[in-house]
Amino acid sequence: MSGIWKPARHKYGVVTSNFVANTINQALQLYIGETVHVLEEYWPDPKTDKVTWLRGCTISNKNKKGIFPCCYIAFKECTVENEGPFETVTPVEDAVITEIIFVLREWNTRWKMLFVERKQLFQTILLVMGELAKYRTQLASSTLTREKALEQKHSAIIMMDWGNSQLGLDLVPRVEYQQADPDQLSVVEMFRIHEQSVHNCQGAWTEREPTAQQRKSG
């Protein structure tokens, strides 16, 4: 390599394709879904900002460092502490992923109480929790296309709104997949957002009710 290595501008990413290169010196073997801490980036031509290779380690094994192609990594936002030889990186979670984690924790307590009172809803909530956990894993992997990620975020929000309404929890007002700030919106705007959440709940229940009825009859 005749170019130059520079400190990485993007420090954190997710592997989008398996990288196995036994013939490349100092190559770091990677598997899809792994997360990496990027330390340096290789510029083949210092006059441009095109980066072809990266040097770093996986988050799960920071002792083993090596190089890997830049095109195999999907970069994600992160915070960097103690920047330098002993730095650590922490990913900035997507708002929907963070909400899914919070919802699953809160639902878990209330869901157990349904077993005696409402067994049919108990089973339905269990299925929805499983789907939300699956969405959370897929969204966090960053291996989805932009269109597929938006589709899954939309589905997850509908499920969370529906579950919150069934469990007697407050509906969460959102703007573009993030919780709305009431200080930045008018009363009319907040009302419209709340109406949309209620509509999501009703639509989700209409879709899920036949499944619950089928299980009951079976």
UniProtKB/TrEMBL annotation:
UniProt keyword annotations, A-Z? SH3 domain
Identification of the protein by name: SH3 domain-containing protein
GO cellular component terms, alphabetically, are:
cytoplasm; plasma membrane
Q: Does the keyword Magnesium apply?
A: no
Ranges where the SH3 domain occurs: 8-78
Q: Which InterPro entries match?
A: DOCK, DOCK_N, DOCK_N_sub1, SH3-like_dom_sf, SH3_domain
Q: Which GO terms describe its biological process?
A: small GTPase-mediated signal transduction
Q: One Pfam family name from the record?
A: DOCK_N
Q: What Gene Ontology molecular function terms does this protein carry?
A: guanyl-nucleotide exchange factor activity; small GTPase binding
